[in-house]
Amino acid sequence: MNEIILIKNGELVLKGLNRNTFEDILIKNMKKSLRDLGEFTFTKSQSTIMVKPVDEDTDLDDAVDRLKRVFGIAALSRAAVSEKDMDCIKSISSEYLDDELSLAKTFKVEAKRSDKKFPLKSPEIARELGGYLLSKFNHLKVDVHNPDVTVTVEIRDNYAFIRGNNIKGAGGMPVSTSGRAAVLISGGIDSPVAAYMMAKRGIELVAVHFASPPYTTELAEEKVMELLHRVAKYSGPITTYVVPFTEIQERIREDCPEEFFTIIMRRYMMKISEIIAHHQNCSALITGESVGQVASQTIYALGCTDAACEMPVFRPCIGMDKEEIIRISRKIDTFDTSILPYEDCCTVFTPKHPKTRPQLSAVIDAEASLDSDALIQRAVDGARRTVIK
Ligand code: ATP
Ligand code: MG
């Protein structure tokens, strides 16, 4: 049996004249995510994109699984391709949807006829196919309001498509329709979630991670790469910079008042990330900060961090409870990796009594003795770049 995947666009149907560009980017992203699975053709038609495997033996379960993570797709479904003939449609429907209908208690049939030359009208198609399926699956009842399975038949120009229930897509907008931003990624729970959330809005990701060997280990860095690998299943490949941060942290420890350690360190992270972001054509930074979560994330501390750079900083977790963030991290499968117990550079020199109401002027005074430009330059020069897929 010939089978295809039907893609329903999400928000991008609203984009008017830009719709074509949006759809083309969505198709490009779908192609990327299916690349090593086989060859597919993509055909646009109204608000649907048809994805057809060139080779009939292609693993469509795997293809659907991957496409479920591509942003810009509201819903998707597998569909059987049938001749435009009622007998054909009936026999293919009962065979193709056998499992789904056998398990269901109730169903309904919806028909859409874009080929107006087809001899039956939509309600007639629905009635005739519905009657046939009732005779084949005699445990079934019709429920037009809340059926377990909705069988949809679409009569198109060349073929009819038959499908069961839709599968929910990842929603959002196709990645790289909204520009690029650099996410400051730690090994924690929040920043991978923040990265995912901004990629969902169509932003292409670059990642910056600060490592402080020997205080932080290679395992901690591998953990961050594993997290990015998981985010990349949604966002596509992520160009990643690992920045050496040891010297800056040691200098802060030696020369700055302890109560400002974390805030000054966070300000350096922002400054360095901004330089890398410019370099990578990014227009914003992304962090996993959330108001009140720790001393460095009170609104006063966030104000001091924010003042360290000029680019807009997106903090999609800002108003979320830890539980809400964890729910998303479980959904995107980063949670189990995030909770592996490796040191992050933030936890290496944690002050005993951090200031929760730091004043920007006091912070600037506290960091004045550091040779900022040279420290930042050495960190940027020492950054290692990789692409995480
Ligand atoms: P996360 O769970 O994302 O680590 P957190 O609640 O532990 O966040 P902090 O450790 O204070 O919070 O870090 C706040 C934000 O700073 C992180 O969400 C991340 O964006 C950034 N950040 C922290 N440590 C690093 C690091 N080593 N490299 C890059 N960015 C970092
Ligand atoms: Mg952290």
Features:
single chain; 389 residues; alpha/beta; 15 helices; 40% helix; binds adenosine-5'-triphosphate; binds magnesium ion
Describe the structure.
- This protein is of the alpha/beta class and 389 residues long.
- The protein is built from 15 helices and 15 strands.
- The strands form 2 sheets. Strands 1, 2, 3, 4, 5, 6, 7, 8 and 9 form a 9-stranded mixed beta sheet that branches.
- The protein is elongated, with a radius of gyration of 26 Å.
- The two termini are 34 Å apart.
- The protein binds adenosine-5'-triphosphate and magnesium ion.
- Adenosine-5'-triphosphate binds next to helix 6, strand 11 and helix 13.
What is the topology?
Layout: E1 3-9, H1 19-34, E2 40-45, E3 48-53, H2 60-67, E4 73-82, H3 86-96, H4 98-103, E5 106-113, H5 122-136, E6 141-142, E7 149-155, E8 160-163, E9 167-171, E10 180-184, H6 190-200, E11 204-211, H7 218-235, E12 238-244, H8 246-255, H9 261-279, E13 284-286, H10 299-306, E14 313-314, H11 322-331, H12 335-338, H13 345-348, H14 360-366, H15 372-381, E15 384-388
Helix pairs in contact: 3-5, 6-7, 8-9, 9-10, 9-15
Magnesium ion (MG) binds next to loops.
